[in-house]
């Protein structure tokens, strides 16, 4: 099982929307998908649960941290949903190490049952995010094309608690940053200029999808994506042409991300 975490400390950048689209996408591709929602807001759980596609686990995601013995339904698409208990974890600092250990042990125990685990995270740099990053193979970081978000890229890399450098150095050397995924992208001069600035400053962190100078993975801003999220629909199955058009724009980026995640060596490090 490969584990992919969606994270960015900026709120509202499309983490949960991308996590939801990816979960449906991988399930559609025939991968056995485990979806874990570590955000008490539940914006990954709600659309997956209401879509009727994912089997609901009988525990909330907090239990993956508080207990190491978990058993999940034998189904190809399972959701471990958001739960109120997630909020209390940060307030028990003496238990943070056990929480992270339990989470890692729970994922390890599920290794043979799923091909892919997708974890959506809350925007605070707390123990939930640390546990997720400490256990993951891949990090994908949705980012919005505004100045604050661009300024925030430094923190993503260098934050003292949850920055990828720190996590890799101290907790999880196998963690790989797939890259920054610009989301809610609009063809305005303002965003174009921020996109070129992002390319100039952080080109190695973007995800190339072609040979052109601006060919990097991104998610456009489309009302159909917000509607899919709000109505728990699968974007490419929606009746409107606008939804299918939005999906077509996303496919090259998802194919690239999927290629990276699924082609990588076994997470026990055999190919490392
Ligand atoms: N590509 C998109 N086009 C249009 N709307 C979008 C897109 N991506 C996300 N949205 C909408 O923007 C809002 C914020 O998105 P989302 O909840 O995915 O962000 P988030 O990063 O998970 O937020 P939080 O930090 O609060 O967890 C939601 O209403 C969502 O439906
Ligand atoms: Mg979210």
Q: Per DSSP, what share of the residues sits in E-state strands of 2 or more residues?
A: 5-15%
Q: Mind summarizing the main beta sheet?
A: 7 strands, parallel
Helix content: 40-55%
Number of domains: 1
- Shape summary: globular
Overview features:
272 residues, alpha/beta, Rossmann fold, seven-stranded parallel beta sheet, 42% helix, globular, binds adenosine-5'-triphosphate, binds magnesium ion
Task: Describe this entry's structure for a reader.
- This is ParA family protein.
- InterPro entries: AAA_dom, DNA_Partitioning_ATPase, P-loop_NTPase.
- Strands 3-4-2-5-1-6-7 form a 7-stranded parallel β-sheet, sandwiched between helices.
- Helices cover 42% and strands 13% of the residues.
- The relative contact order is 0.17.
- Strand 3, helix 3 and strand 4 form a beta-alpha-beta unit.
- Mean pLDDT is 93; it is low at 267-272.
- The protein has 272 residues and is α/β, with parallel strands linked by helices.
- The protein has a single domain (2-263), classed as P-loop containing nucleotide triphosphate hydrolases (Rossmann fold), CATH 3.40.50.
- Magnesium ion (MG) binds next to helix 1.
